[in-house]
Amino acid sequence: MSFEVLLLNLMLRFIFKNYQFVLALTFAIEEINENPHLLHNFTLGFDICNVEFEAWKTLKNPFISLFGKYNIPNYSCMRESKSIAVLTGPSGLTSAQIGTFLNLYRFPQLTFGPFDHALSDHNKFPALYQMASKDTSIANAVVSLLLHFSWSWVGLLTSQDENGMWILPELKEEMTKNSVCVAFELVIPNYALTLKFMTLYDQINKSSANVLIIYGDNEFILHLMMCVEEYFIKGKVCIMNSHWDLTTRRRYFMLGSIHVPIIFSPHHPDILGFTDFVKAVNPSKYPEDFFLARLWFLSFNCSDSESDCVLWENCPHEASFDWLPGHIFDTTMSGDSYHIYNAVYAVAQALHELLLHQAEAQTVGKRKGAVTSPAQLHYFLKNIQFHNPAGDQVVLDEKMKLETEYDIVNVWTFPEGLELKLNVGKFSPYVLHGRQLSLSEDMVHWAIGTTERPHSVCSESCGPGFRKSPQDGKAACCFDCTPCSKDDITNETDMEHCMKCPDHQYANTERNQCLPRAARFLAYEEPLGMALACMALSLSILTTVVLGVFVKHKNTPIVKANNQALSYILLISLIFCFLCSLLFIGRPNTSTCILQQTTFGVVFTVAVSAVLAKTVTVVLAFKVTSPGRRMRWLLLSGAPNFIIPICTLIQVTLCGIWLGTSPPFVDTDAHSEHGHLIILCNRGSLTAFYCVLGYLGFLALASFMLAFLARNLPDRFNEAKFLTFSMLLFCIVWLTFLPVYHSAKGDVMLVIEVFSILASSAGLLGCIFAPKCYIILLRPDRNLLHGFRDKAHTGRNRPS
After folding, report:
1. Of the candidates 573, 572, 574, the residue with the CA atom closest to the CA atom of residue 539
2. Which residues form the domain of 428?
3. Within a domain: residue 653?
4. CA torsion, points 226, 228, 234, 239, in degrees to nearest 10?
5. What SS3 class is residue 576?
6. Fewest CB within 10 angstroms: 290, 364, 589, 800, which?
7. What's the predicted TM-score (pTM) here?
């Protein structure tokens, strides 16, 4: 069988840790060469090209590697080179510089560094393929971490290139959705990073934001972190999208890190056998590898002290890269090495497809003459899609690539340059929202001397019972905490609005919970309700006793003097007036609500109209001067007795209209007393209520005026003065009642109304009947008609 050697060029800046890239390339090529199902009869090889740091030398070594030291590209056929593709990285800038040169010859270029948006321009780099997936979910991942740690006040540091211009709007949009604010936003150019950073030192170090989100390529982050350490940016958490190489830094970690690096590293599976392969690598296995020999010499000091020659016999026989500390050389496959591994397989798969295509298109006789050029590989690279030995899907077309999963890496830093990279969590965009981030917070190593995680907020959280009040002219994360008003609560932190408790509940003193209101009404069991009920019963019993006294002494002059029947009616109505106050005590229901106002209006109308009838009777009795007068006929015919039914009928009509239009009903008051739900009767129509009360007041005022006019009429048993005082007291009580009643709240209104009923009724009883009972019971000698006629005659013949 025939063999053709096809070289893969690996172009990178050679430093100690980058040698793992060489080992990943070697491991992948040896795997492919041992695979009988891939590139049968062909053997892959590779060449390593060291890209120098100086910009003007960047293309020197790649040029020599591809075309030879003395060949001129325009006059040397490209087929003389056996290279089929070039791997570049991890620097995006270096890949771009080399890519410009490779595009001239349509040479396939595969980059293995982090995804660089500057390289995604296919018009500028049509022959370039990025192995890393586009970091479309990085903004969501970073914000998820911020929310997990309750960091809402952060600073943004990005590079002034396509990467920085891409991430800023993505991050801001995601942060705005989740109420995370930007304390400061810094876009730093790569060419003047140190100078620019010096001018921004105060803004970064003195900011209350303790979290810095840094986005850029490896070189940008490396130089930025050197500035962060050199200028003593203290106590900041640096969240980054990429790792950097620590071996190039001179003073790093001399006293231990003063900031906390948290890195979102694209997740990749472990490649079976790679670690064992690295452990088995030594110069005797690859004697032609100059880089390996130099690393071995530097790591294990294999020289003879006398001759200073490298003698492998002087090296430890079991020496291995596994002996080296992890911060110097890591035997586990890094993300960039994983991309190299996939790149080699992608080239091998594409080359395999190309060779199969040529075999089908040509005859067996012409097959030996077939030429495989690098430019022919593009069609197959663009459409390549396969699963690598680890089971991961490899796709070079950016539109078909899956979103990236991230490992969250925390760098534990120690003095003397020691570090430990530890996976503390993972972010997966394929998990349900809210569960995308998984994190072991207890494994996160914060800054030296600190055990608690940093705090990064503009304003402290508003606890339950408070709401956020925005501060004028500041970000949404800057706010004041305002206590919720009465009966409003917040049961979570950082709520923007207070929630009102339902009517049957009230807010506790902390304003963080709604509690059920206790039902409240003027109950008989309460001291106040019991006192009012006892007063009503006592006064009604007293009125009954007075009625009994009047009935017993019905034939005495003082009982007969002022219409005996009207006195009985007045006393009976007063009994009902006292008893109607009991309707206002106890738990209200529909029946008691209707009876409260209507009974009160009717019985008081009867009482006041009885007083009016008695007053009219007194006036008519003293105005009768001759038997032929019409007033004498009115008095003898009992016309005053019709006042009571007529006045009562009018009041009953008003009450009927009230009940027919808008009757009283059971209602609740949740605002008058904190923590109580007062059950009371709603009057229904206020107009009807005031009509009933106004009509009653009109009768009282008419009675008062007539009694006042008849107060000086001569008669031993003239009760006009008593009627005047009783109606004066009645009017004072109810005129005082109206403003006090309307200014009161809750069951205090009922207490005032009950007290007014009892006071006005007691006033009528005391002013009208107390003097008469005094004469009947204690001064019977004055309860005689002796001298009545003479005094009456003298009074009638008194000159005017």
Report:
1. 574
2. 138-266+404-443
3. yes
4. -100
5. helix
6. 800
7. 0.66
Same domain, 622 and 565: yes
**Tell me, what CATH number does 196's domain have?**
3.40.50.2300
In the 8-state DSSP scheme, what is residue 765?
A: I
Q: Which string of DSSP letters, residue by residue, matches 226-255?
A: HHHHHTT--S-EEEESS---STT-SSTTSS
pLDDT at 255: 40
Residue from 762, 50, 110, 24 nearest 331 by CA: 24
Q: What is the 3-state secondary structure (H, E, C) of 671-705?
A: CCCCCEEEEEEECCCHHHHHHHHHHHHHHHHHHHH
Q: Indicate if 640 and 730 belong to the same structural domain.
A: yes
Tally of domains within the chain: 4
* Residue 236 token pair: 């900041």
What is each CA distance from 257 to 194, 283, 485, 556, 772, in whole angstroms? 19, 36, 48, 115, 105
Burial of residue 672 (number of CB atoms within 10 Å: 0-12, 13-18, 19+): middle
Same domain, 286 and 147: no
What's the rounded Cα separation, in Å, for the pair 732 and 760?
Answer: 9
Q: Are 65 and 49 in contact (CB under 8 A)?
A: yes
If asked whether residues 130 and 166 sit together in one domain, one would say no
Residues 116 and 176 in one domain: no
For 351, residues 6+ apart whose C-beta sits below 8 A from its C-beta are 6, 39, 42, 84, 372, 377, 380
Residues 588 and 734 in one domain: yes
Q: Note whether residue 789 is domain-resident.
A: no
Mean pLDDT for each 10-residue chunk of the chain (800 residues)? 47 69 92 88 80 48 48 43 80 82 85 87 90 89 93 89 87 91 85 69 81 83 72 76 54 50 89 92 84 80 53 71 79 90 93 86 55 82 91 89 89 67 90 88 76 84 90 86 90 89 86 87 87 93 92 83 82 92 89 88 90 78 53 54 87 90 86 80 86 88 81 60 83 83 76 88 88 84 58 41
Q: Are 401 and 395 in contact (CB under 8 A)?
A: yes
- Tokens for 585, please give them: 């005590």
Among the listed residues 688, 600, 691, 613, the one whose alpha carbon sits nearest the alpha carbon of residue 647: 613
Other C-beta atoms within 10 Å of 684: how many? 19
237 CB-contact burial (10 Å; exposed 0-12 / middle 13-18 / buried 19+): buried
- How far out from the chain centre does Cα 398 lie? 37
688 shares a domain with 738: yes
d(CA 735, CA 67): 116
- The answer to whether 132 and 89 have CB atoms below 8 angstroms apart is no
Q: Is-contact 655 685, C-beta < 8 A?
A: no
Q: CA-CA-CA-CA torsion for 36, 37, 43, 44, nearest 10 degrees? A: -130
User: In angstroms, rounded to a whole number, what is the distance separating the alpha carbons of residues 225 and 491?
Assistant: 42
Residues 288 and 372 in one domain: yes
Widest CA span in the chain? 168
SS (H, E, C) 497-514: CCEECCCCEEECCCCCCE
Report the interhelical angle of 564-580 vs 590-623 (nearest 10°). Answer: 160
Distance between terminal CA atoms of the chain? 162
By C-alpha distance, which of 646, 650, 642 is closest to 563?
A: 642
The CATH number assigned to the domain holding 627 equals 1.20.1070.10
Structure tokens belonging to residue 24: 């990943």
